[in-house]
Design brief:
alpha/beta; Aspartate Aminotransferase, domain 1; Aspartate Aminotransferase, domain 2; 2 domains; 4-stranded antiparallel β-sheet; 15 helices; 15 strands; about 40% helix; about 15% strand; disordered N terminus
Length: about 425
């Protein structure tokens, strides 16, 4: 039986499918009994393109991956080293150290002004990705549907597919005033099979941010129908005006079917540490604990002590990162944003430019050519959703020198 992803218009680039077309031999997944959800997953062309760029050698400038250029600051590293030297290397608790759960609760009081996020509502995880997987495992059954606002990070769509559930995409609209969400389309996409609405705000890859009115409408709609809301707020502190983006927790009731995902990765330059958390209703405490026990048992204790210090002492570092990215964003808008062939809305959050180029409808083919001809690696928009197959994502979380070199190459290529 052919993999169902063959119907997609970018399968000709999928190396596994290409191998079948060229050799006539069955795929590995067709020869051995494997998980059907795994075998039926759509290809991740962003990952494939990054591998292709690496094979081309070190001269290729990569702005395809979503992480900053600054290493984890010393005060966080020192906290982890201290914990290691003190022997904090044994098993921890499945939902995280009580000290970190308390610190996250205090962080929401201090930065967000919330007094109702008790430590019992905080579940520490090995990364935001793990937080999403634990959440989906807790709420989804086979053939349930998740209505996702796209463009969205491919790994989130893949996590739903691995849960043996289905995604119904509702695409944002790219207009003269930036990206916008049609609420009528969002609610029309929900039906009797809908188990959750998935929102990422601030958005990876567009920088779009949901409004207060839209948050309240979604929460009211979900309450009425008993639908979960899963809010990925990993980029919530990475905004260029103000201290933070709006959170669903600003308007939620304590017992709402709401799971808020967050991570230390982007905000505190800890992508490789794999540390995140969930804020959910208190009744999910035991459920997430059970899943965590069978998933990874616990988060490494020494990384959690580093997380405590990051929350307590990291505000200056966050602002330093944002100041750097604001400058590279402005440089990006002055050059690529002014190019007559480029359509790019100025991102007000996160650190991505999501744009399309006149005359380049096939983003995957275009990305391959940019690697070969310009020596620049970017991420193809189709991996973020069906609504963005002509778009490309560029990370501007890099040094000014790297950005200048990449833009020079891109402008020449265009």
């Amino acid at each position: 039986m052919l993999n169902p992803v063959l119907v997609r218009d970018y399968d000709r680039y999928d190396p596994m499918q290409r191998e079948k077309y060229e050799s006539g031999k069955p795929l590995f997944e067709e020869q051995y009994p494997l998980n059907k959800a795994l075998c039926g997953m759509s290809p991740n062309m962003a990952a494939e393109l990054m591998n292709y760029a690496r094979e081309k050698g070190p001269d290729v400038i990569s702005l395809a991956q979503g992480e900053g250029c600054m290493p984890t600051p010393d005060f966080i590293v020192d906290a982890a080293a201290k914990a290691l030297k003190e022997g904090k290397t044994f098993y921890g608790r499945p939902l995280g150290l009580p000290e970190l759960r308390e610190e996250i609760s205090d962080y929401y009081k201090r930065i967000y002004g919330f007094s109702n996020i008790s430590p019992e509502r905080v579940f520490v995880t090995t990364s935001g990705s793990n937080a999403m997987n634990l959440t989906l495992r807790a709420v989804l059954n086979k053939d349930d549907e998740v209505v996702a606002i796209t463009p969205i990070w491919k790994n989130l769509l893949g996590a739903v597919e691995l849960s043996d559930a289905h995604v119904r995409q509702v695409g944002l609209t790219d207009g003269p005033d930036g990206w916008s969400l049609d609420m009528d389309k969002l609610f029309a996409a929900c039906n009797e099979k809908t188990k959750a609405i998935l929102v990422v705000s601030p958005s990876n890859p567009t920088g779009w941010m949901i409004s207060a009115e839209q948050i309240q409408e979604i929460l009211a709609f979900a309450r009425e129908r008993g639908i979960w809301v899963i809010s990925d707020e990993v980029y919530g502190r990475l905004v260029y005006e103000g201290t933070r983006a709006l959170s669903f927790l600003d308007y939620a009731q304590d017992d709402d079917l709401l799971m808020v995902i967050n991570s230390f990765s982007k905000t505190w330059a800890m992508t490789g540490w794999r540390l995140g958390w969930i804020v959910g209703p208190a009744f999910m405490d035991d459920k997430i604990r059970h899943i965590s026990i069978y998933n990874n048992l616990c988060v490494a204790p020494f990384t959690q002590y580093a997380g405590i210090v990051a929350l307590r002492e990291g505000e200056e570092f966050i602002q330093n990162q944002l100041n750097l990215w604001r400058k590279t964003r402005d440089l990006l808008m002055e050059t690529l944003g002014q190019h007559p062939r480029v359509h790019l809305s100025k991102p007000e959050s996160s650190f991505y430019a999501f744009f399309k180029v006149d005359g380049e409808p096939d983003c995957i083919d275009f990305c391959y050519r940019l690697i070969d001809e310009a020596g620049v690696s970017l991420a193809p928009g189709i991996t973020f959703g069906d609504c963005s197959k002509s778009y490309i994502r560029m990370s501007f979380a890099c040094s000014r020198a790297k950005m200048e070199k990449a833009l020079d190459r891109l402008v020449k290529a265009l």
